[in-house]
Automatic annotation (TrEMBL):
Keywords: Calcium, Chloroplast, Heme, Hydrogen peroxide, Iron, Metal-binding, Oxidoreductase, Peroxidase, Plastid, Potassium, Transit peptide. Residues 250-274 are annotated as: Disordered. It catalyses: L-ascorbate + H2O2 = L-dehydroascorbate + 2 H2O. InterPro entries: Ccp1-like, Haem_peroxidase, Haem_peroxidase_sf, Peroxidase_I, Peroxidases_heam-ligand_BS. One of its GO terms (molecular function) is heme binding. It comes from Nelumbo nucifera. Its EC number is 1.11.1.11. Residues 252-268 have a biased composition (Basic and acidic residues). The keyword Heme applies. Belongs to the peroxidase family. Ascorbate peroxidase subfamily. PROSITE patterns: PEROXIDASE_1 (PS00435), PEROXIDASE_4 (PS50873). This is L-ascorbate peroxidase.
Amino acid sequence: MAESVSVTSRMACLGGACRLLPAASRAKAYSLPLLSRPPSISLSSVKCLRSSPSAFPLFLNRKFQSRSLVHPPSAGGAVGSPTCFASNPDQLKSAREDIKELLKTKFCHPILVRLGWHDAGTYDKNIEEWPRQGGANGSLRFEIELKHAANAGLVNALKLLQPIKEKYSTVTYADLFQLASATAIEEAGGPKIPMKYGRVDVSGPDQCPPEGKLPDAGPPSPATHLRDVFYRMGLNDKEIVALSGAHTLGRSRPERSGWGKPETKYTKDGPGAPGGQSWTVQWLKFDNSYFKDIKEKRDLDLLVLPTDAVLFEDPSFKVYAEKYAEDQETFFKDYAEAHAKLSNLGAKFDPPEGFST
Ligand code: HEM
């Protein structure tokens, strides 16, 4: 009885007061105070941030948009011949160390994971042409894509990565986003992700995908919707469930997505900016508690989106969700494979086979 009451009231919340915000509130979400400006960003860039209609101006500087650079053989190419890689492997390794430092001070693991996912998750396997097919190509750095409703709040992730991009300018945005996400998973206690790098960046906002490629949290038929969206990316039921397990990290904020409570006992003191509603108690720890918690649905301070709940309702999804709730090792293995696959969707690698570090 207690369980059914809590589930019902949570679903009522999802369907009622906590539902998507009206347009005015959404607009407000975009005018939230931005994180403090790193010293290296010029005032003209910031001015541009407010006025540019087409691209996220902190990322407009031409020098950061190089597609490929010539590196010495020691950078990873064949001895004796200069190699043209999209990202310099040595710089990429150093960038990883800087991301680890950032994670230690800002506790921004969740938003970096979400950034990588939203860059890659626009991919359409039915479109052959790059970059029209979407995917992990760095297009999310442009304001036009950041302003898509699904990306509310992700400008903050870009601002966190900006100083690292400036320091290691040969590392492409597409690689940096995926590097940051995989590093965040690993540093939060998750599995090692078998990543490769060398992603080429799109060069302009005209190459951004149209709005509406990412999943909605409360569609009329969540299972059908998840399949429509993830099958379009070339992912299957197992990968849908495994990847949903990333919600073991982070919080939902009503002023961003319209979902979740403004704060709970687990989020009111941070770490990081306080507030929001998490899916798990320890929302900076990557483990299988997401599956255990949504299976139980006992704690009203924990979030269960309709697209989370359906993982235990749909017969095919349920097989994996039950397994992951029982067996963290299997979850970690499947998650790592699915995450790596997601990170490669729509990516054009240079060299074509990519490189690992
Ligand atoms: C299955 C469909 C999915 C839906 C409907 C969905 C929806 C959402 C929503 C509504 C939020 C709250 C955003 C906010 O208010 O700031 C969120 C956050 C998040 N999502 Fe998902 N998501 C999905 C899949 C994924 C996947 C595949 C990943 C990663 C592999 C992911 C990673 C995250 C993370 C880490 C957060 C927390 C962000 C933070 O704390 O700042 N999600 N998601």
